Amino acid sequence: MKLLTITIPCYNSEAYMGKCIDSLLPGGDDVEIIVVDDGSKDHTKEIGESYQRKYPGIVRVISKENGGHGSAVNTGLEHANGMYFKVVDSDDWVKESEYIKILDKLRELAGGDSVLDMLISNFVYEKVGEKKNKVMSYRHTLPKDRLFEWKDIRHFRKGQYILMHSVIYRTKLLRDCGLKLPEHTFYVDNIFVFEPLPYVKKMYYMDVNFYRYFIGREDQSVNEKVMIGRIDQQIRVNKIMVDYYIAKKNEMQIHSKIKGYMRDYLDIITTISSVMLICSGTQENLEKKQELWNYIKQKDKFLFAQLRYGLLGSSMNLPGKGGRKISVEAYRICRRFFKFN
Prior knowledge:
The chain contains 13 helices and 10 strands. With 341 residues, the chain is of the alpha/beta class. Helix 10 crosses helix 11.
């Protein structure tokens, strides 16, 4: 068994996937790199296979029909031989020195008495045109350099939450919780992080700037115009997360901090959906926004009240054209401050 499986979902990634793979090779034989060619129409498959020939036993290419990012992650998880599992997107990369530290820690914890479920580290927004890149860290929220449980976690700030870039999950945990991401849908990385959380018992946080999250391509899924064009997929993910939270709500009663964190995560995702629908400026999308909130209300009135009348929900539901203008401006300010796309 390998120590770590890293899956790289690739679709027409020939221009940048080499940088990603090169950054992962220093992991050596302890790491399995699965390049999932998701029906690419360029030279993604050939580039992946050239690495496979050069690094047999480390790099493996799996080609499949196009099914989207979630489908590629599912494929990587299905074929993973590592004790732990991570997704690295093909236009991102990792910092070698921090990568080695993480692998050393995984080796140490893999041989310990307690089973590690999730390792968390920092990520860096590598944003085009920015002289200084923003680091997303958790040093004021999570205990550092020791195993901990949910009860040990301090309060997450608004806008601060764990993303796919932050986590390495235990592979068996992902399989045991039945994780299967929807196909042909963007933004499923939120589901990837969200759904395993009720199964996580032991965590470890390393305050290292490991993952480099590239932002700035015009065709990138988190680009605002692209998100508005794919808003139905964002809404689909939002609803899946709402349904999952409600389904697991009773199981989380004994773990109030999991429940609170997952509710706050939903708050963020619903705010993103709402502001994108407002930013589009169309009557059709304003009706979709109302339908989303009605969906939450019909599913769980108490959850609806918590989201709708909290700080973020209230700011996204200000009345009239003037209220919507204030909501968008508040979002723009937050975007400049937090430097997200």
